[in-house]
Amino acid sequence: MSARTKPPFRADHVGSILRSAAIQSARAKAAKGEITAADLKAVEDREIETIIRKQEEIGLQLATDGEYRRSWWHLDFCWGLTGCEKVTLPHGIQFRGVATRPEGYRITGKLDFPTDHPMLEHFRFLKAHTKVMPKMCIPAPPVLHFRLPKDGIPKSVYADMDTFLPTSARPMRRRSTRSMTPAAAICSLTTPCGPISARPPRCRRRASACRWRTTCRRSIRT
Fold first, then answer.
1. Which of 44, 58, 128, 151 is the most buried (most CB within 10 A)?
2. Confidence (pLDDT) at 140
């Protein structure tokens, strides 16, 4: 059987790879102010090139940047959207023995995908340094709703959820996926928001009415 030359490939992965020791060390130093943003980027560039080579060497037909420039798999993307603001929460998400940083976001205006979103440059770097198909993974629209605090959507911006849910899909569907998927590239939308199914029936109906449901995990290909 001949190997596929177009996605979906037989072997694929979401995109996030365990951060290298060098990345972890550089991020810790940057947080303490011991190195500059430029110093951190230099480490990220070097480590991303290394992880790209690793993916190519093991035979994958696509490569990601390992999400090495992100501190969260989803929040970094959301913070870069027009109309979305980073906030500090009362507490983080509690797991067994550890809690995440108390960071989140709230809606401050109509959502859109700006032409200077940081992840566009992340994609350009990836595309310029791989010999195989570059792939980026971004959060699907339901994540915007799932991670919002109770007062995260002002009624002055979106009157109700029936207005917010369809609109929240537009930055991903119309702009980000197109910007990150030129010829020979993949942009994957993913969401692990399964717990939303346990919410009240009315909320479930709203979510199911949106074409980007919580089960959404699609690859946009050109």
1. 44
2. 80
User: Which residues is 107 bridged to in the sheet?
Assistant: 84
Question: Which residue has tokens 């702009």?
Answer: 175
Could you tell me the mean pLDDT of each successive run of 10 residues in the chain, 222 residues long? 76 89 96 97 98 96 94 90 91 88 91 89 94 89 77 85 76 59 64 44 43 38 34
Say if residue 8 is preceded by a cis peptide, omega within 30 of 0.
yes
Structure tokens at 23: 């990345």
Copy the structure tokens of residue 153: 């959507």
The strand pair at 103-112 and 82-88 is best described as antiparallel
The DSSP 8-state label assigned to residue 137 in this structure reads: E
Cα torsion angle, 188, 189, 193, 198, sign: negative
Local structure of 174: helix, strand or coil: helix
